[in-house]
Amino acid sequence: MKKYNFKKLWSIFFSFLKIGGFTLGGGYAMIPLIKREVCEKQKWLSEEEFLDGLAAAQSSPGPIAVNISIYSGYNAQGIPGMLVAVLGTVLPSFVIIIAIAMLFQEFAEQKVVRKAFSALEPAVVALIAVPLIDMAKKSGINKHNIWFPFIAALLVGLLNVTPVIIILLSIAYTLWETRK
Amino acid sequence: MILLTMFLTFFKIGLFSFGGGYAILAMIRQEVVLINPWLTQQEFMQVVAISQMTPGPIAINAATFVGYHKAGVLGSLVCTLGVVMPSLIVMALITVTYMKLRKLEWFKRIFKRLRLLSVGLIGAALIMILPKAVESTFALGVFIVSFFATWRWKVSPFTLLIFAAIFGAIFGIA
Hints:
heterodimer; A: mainly alpha; 7 helices; 0% strand; B: mainly alpha
């Protein structure tokens, strides 16, 4: 029976709790903070190991912040480390959203809240439009392959085709293409 | 029964979400607005706005909110567990095998293609919600200013949404 270092597990949990609780703006905003905590402050991973993990986290399904916490936690302290890291990352959102959801049903019908959301909604649409430009640059789009994201956007956005089908077909096609 | 449906729905969302937050939105909307009548279009937009103003990954926030909305704290727990579970399984496997896998040609190609696809999925989310942003002159104005504030002047999402909320509360349409 392996003995686990409970002090270390606690510090893994607490590190990710801090990151989960104080990072606004979703997954990508959390990465620099996770890197600072994991590589520089706690020294659980070297910078190179972290970047490998980040690449894996991006290629794996699920929220990127959750994935990188799984990788960091696992490398710091095996499976228990992985579990406490995920718990730490998820717990703050969970508690905060439940609190908001509880209050929201009462507040949602208030005139001032409805007015606030009339400006929030178009602002959110803008927040989604901007990373589309950055991501299109980073993903290596060119005039030969732009049809693919374009068609996918139309199929999912207009015809409500599920992304599941497109993901599975892409994987199958790539495997077929690289057979041999 | 609804708990099981909710768990499976969010498990599916977790399993097929590549490319981070915004790429997941189109799928979450399909699942919780169109396929299952758990949220209205307006509630969905509210969840997205709230997710941007609160800490944590957007998929977790959406799962927690939808779960609570339909079945209280237990619902939240089930949905969040559902969305995290595929990450736990796949990421644990990848952590162990990634160093070998990433040298393989087919593996590299799959993820190159999925990265391209995630751009398309963000585009899909935009197609779904853009009409909302141009339905009135007021909304269109807020959209254009927000777009340039984020793109050109690098205003953070949180700051932008706080300003939008205050501006809306004073000048918005009820």
